[in-house]
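The passage that follows is intended for readers who have already worked through the single-chain material. We present the inputs for a multi-component assembly, then the predicted structure in tokenized form, and finally a short commentary. You are encouraged to pause after the input and sketch how you expect the pieces to fit together before reading on.
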Amino acid sequence: MRMTKTFTENDLLRFLYNDLSRVQHDEIQSAVFTDSDLQDKLVELQYPKLKLDNIIYKPSQKTVNSILAYSASYEKESV
Amino acid sequence: MSSTKMTDGQLVTLYKNGNEEAFAELLERHQNRVYTTIFLIVKDRYVAEDLMQEVYIKAIKTIKGGKYNEEGKFLPWILRIAHNIAIDQFRKDKRYPTIVMEDGGSLFNSLEFSQAPIETETIKQDTYNALKQHIKDLPDSQREVLVMRHYMQMSFQDIAEATNVSINTALGRMRYALINLRKKLKTTNNAYDQNFYRE
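Having made your guess, compare it with the prediction:
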């Protein structure tokens, strides 16, 4: 009798973040295609992940300029 | 200098040899991710700006001092520096500041959207402002794992080792972080559901 492998929510999380071996990834991908419960659980994790993808903070131009200036002056000091 | 398709490793090599344009390109490529990593940990814009400079000063000294040997893996390297410096500061402070500027405006005004879903501008702005607050409100352990996985793109195994927990604990913290964010986002979205307030 063929055993059906079950996957945990931790497995789904690793799948979502591509944190598995190729074999494990493919196994879960196949399971998700046919298991609506797994699909629902995956969507629940995916929703906030997608929102997080849009959260980006930018440093001020002043900070960027300070860093560039430091690098340029550091180079001169070592010449 | 044409650096459009240069890898980080190539830019570092050029920079080691004195090419400041290469450094400027490296900085521009990754500054937002580095800054976001720092900011989500320390949750204070002024502190994050200072630490950003500290991170890059350390990177500059390492590269120009001939001690850089990451062989092309520049981003993970500098994100580790950023994380370590930010965590040290956070542990030193261990506080959750809510800082309002003199004009009453928020410090958290440098949010940049990328490929946002189609929503009205007001809803989009409020949703992401709410998400920023929700991230801040996460328990420290959950927020740390979230930053390391989502923004620093560390593997869960590396996160587990870095935080001295089992991989299942690291996974659990990340899962609960996402679940908590999802619950709070749903509450925020209900506020804009036309049917929610219909009499």
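Commentary: Residues 136 and 176 of chain B are 14 Å apart (CA to CA). The first helix of chain B runs from residue 8 to 16. How closely did your sketch match?
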